[in-house]
Amino acid sequence: MEFTSVLFYIFSFFFVTSAVMMITARNTAKAALLLILTFFSAASLWLLLEAEFLAITLILIYVGAVMVLFMFVIKMLDTDKSTLRAQFTRYLPLGIFVSIVVIAQMVLVLNAGQFDLEVIGVPERHDASYSNITAIAEQLYTVYVYPFELAAILLLIAIIAAITLVHRNQVRSKKQNISEQVNVQAQDRLRFASIKPKSSKESK
Amino acid sequence: MIALSDYLILSSIVFCIGLAGIFINRTNIIMLLMCVELILAAVNTNFIAFSYFSGDIAGQIFVFFILTVAAAEVAIGLAILTLMFRSRGSIDIDVTSTLKG
Fold first, then answer.
1. Which one, A54, A86, B13, B71, has the greatest CB density within 10 A?
2. Residue A203: predicted pLDDT
């Protein structure tokens, strides 16, 4: 058995095991940590597939930003309510049944031989001078430049939406209300105060 | 040498684990979001495996866009979750039945 095959089985074992432990975890914070392990295993598998840029991106963005956001929310909110676990076993048989049926169908379809190495050919390993980032960037900034800019706009909209949703004091724009200004009465804004002037002797 | 079908079977297994996670954790919205992330990781593995074995970089670019959309989805989803917890005091999905007639 080749070394890369051994690595594939090790990483897939961690991928599947941590995923199973994640969905069955009692504690949500523990589930988030196991999801981080799942992402690391996925990134290792992507490295085996020569997708170095995406593997690093998965770790930097998902583990570094998204999962930290998850941990923040988990720790901020009270997630240890017992009601959340009440229905855990109620849908467990159905979930296991559906998953096993889908996995069996996929294995039957995918193992039929059309995806074997003899059919689609063994891809050549690139040499050390090959840069995955360069290959992605050449496509991303030429063919896919408009989707790339759309993705930037999408992220900007997501930032604005998240801030406006969670912001406690709603941000109001400062604009004039013309009818309010026209209909204002004198007693609304003007107050007469009767102040008696002090004599100069009392002030001393 | 690992064939393409091995990667596809692995990603379908992880996809189904995420699916089962949605079934069994259906009251906890944070767990639902994390199971969606698991499903997306499986789908991305599928894309990258096809990209590698067919020698086409377009699959990896598609994964790049999926990562972008998923990050935006998580940000807005967690913001809505925080709002929901603030107004109802719970993230139980069964509490959110106000739209029921």
1. A54
2. 54
Return the residue of A nearest to B27 by Cα: A84
- What pLDDT digit, counting tens, does each position of A9-53 carry? 999 999 999 999 999 888 888 999 999 999 999 999 999 999 999
- The mean of the pLDDT values for chain A is 86
Q: What ipTM was predicted for this assembly?
A: 0.91
Cβ pairs bridging A and B (under 8 Å): 228
Tokens of B73: 């989805």
Domain B4-88 has CATH 1.10.287.3510: yes
* Alpha carbons B13 and B21: distance in angstroms, whole number: 12
pLDDT band at A92 (very low <50, low <70, confident <90, very high): confident
> Is B57–A62 a contact, with Cβ atoms under 8 angstroms apart?
no
Spatial contact of A151 and B65, defined as CB atoms under 8 Å apart? yes
Torsion of CA B82, A35, A109, A9, to 10 degrees: 170
Q: State the virtual CA torsion across A129, A134, A138, A141 in degrees, nearest 10.
A: -170
Report the residue of A44, A66, A148 to disrupt the B interface, i.e. the one with the largest count of B CBs within 10 Å.
A66
Average pLDDT over residues B71-86: 90
Handedness of CA A29, A32, A36, A38 (dihedral sign): positive
Q: Residue A106: list chain B partners with CB under 8 A.
A: 8-9, 12, 16
Q: Residue ranges per domain, chain B?
A: 4-88
**A interface mutation test: which of B19, B35, B36, B48 has the most A CBs within 10 A?**
B48
State the Cα–Cα distance between residues B84 and B98, nearest whole angstrom: 12
Which of B24, B61, B63 has its CB closest to that of A144?
Answer: B61
Give the pLDDT confidence score for residue B14 in this predicted structure.
Answer: 95
